[in-house]
Amino acid sequence: MSTWFSGWRLVVGFLVTVIGVPIVGLVLTWVDRFVSARVQWRKGPPFYQPFADILKLLLKQTIVPRGAARTTFLFAPVVGIAGMTLVAMLIIYSNFNTVVNQQSSFIGDIIVLLYCFALVPISFIIGASASGNPVAAVGASREMTLYLGYELPFVLAILIPVVKVAQQWGVASALRIGGLVAYQQQFGPLLYSISGVIAAVIVLFTIQAKLGYVPFDIPEAEQEIMSGVIVEYSGAPLALFRIARAMAFVLLPLFLITLLWGGLRDWWALLKFLLIVVLIVLMKNTNPRLTIHQALRFFWFILAPIGIIGLVLAFIGL
């Protein structure tokens, strides 16, 4: 009976995740567009606009460019959706099934999470490269360069809480998302330390880049390369790309809360989530777009050294 019940819980949780996260992501997309419009003294779209846009794309014809690698071109958006679905399952399951012995997740799931987050930019790179469009190729080159830029500080930021937890609970617990959450439930959020603040700042900037938001919207830059990586996409594949990006808009702030701010098991997590979303939108609306060289210098020569300093502070317990 318990096995049957657990199986149904897993199925229901999967369905809620697959349906709920995209819906919340599209709502956040509307919030972003509405706030951006208000900042620019415009009225902004109605709340249902992102849903209408997705529905319109799903009903439109999918056009595959002549000379494109058809199978790869059409399969690329599925890679991004699959990656975000796995991330959603890992984050939600690890937060709401955490027990004292940290057995709610498997050793190394945080490494799996890191790879799953990478599937979204990889899907854009694959799709743009398969399209055969020179403008999309420029976007793919920028996407790859930007990914190589922000991934180093992102990994350093993740290592900071891992090191802090490993010092008291061992490496096995530190490499579990459930272990990180359980540690914070017992000892308080890791954010409330010098190294934790450093990690949070780094993750916030990398979230901006992972979402393709200003000042890091370089791969799509409409005014320069006509949407770049997605210039040849239409219909359902374009809708899937937008859904994947919307899911990332939900999951990246949730990941930050899980990693450093105590997890998602209390109602305060909603306020934390909204605060992070507000910071992301404000950063988007108050900065100009950087060039790819400026972005690389920022990530490699500013954030990465700061991340190394944070890692050293974590080693000495600060």
TrEMBL record:
Transmembrane spans: 6-31, 73-94, 106-126, 147-167, 187-207, 243-261, 267-283, 295-316
Membrane topology note: Multi-pass membrane protein
InterPro entries, alphabetized: ComplexI_Subunit1, NADH_UbQ_OxRdtase_su1/FPO, NADH_UbQ_OxRdtase_su1_CS
Keyword match Lipid biosynthesis: no
Compartments, as annotated in UniProt: Membrane
UniProt entry keywords in alphabetical sequence: Membrane, Transmembrane, Transmembrane helix
GO-annotated cellular components: plasma membrane
Pfam families: NADHdh
Protein name in UniProt: NADH-quinone oxidoreductase subunit H
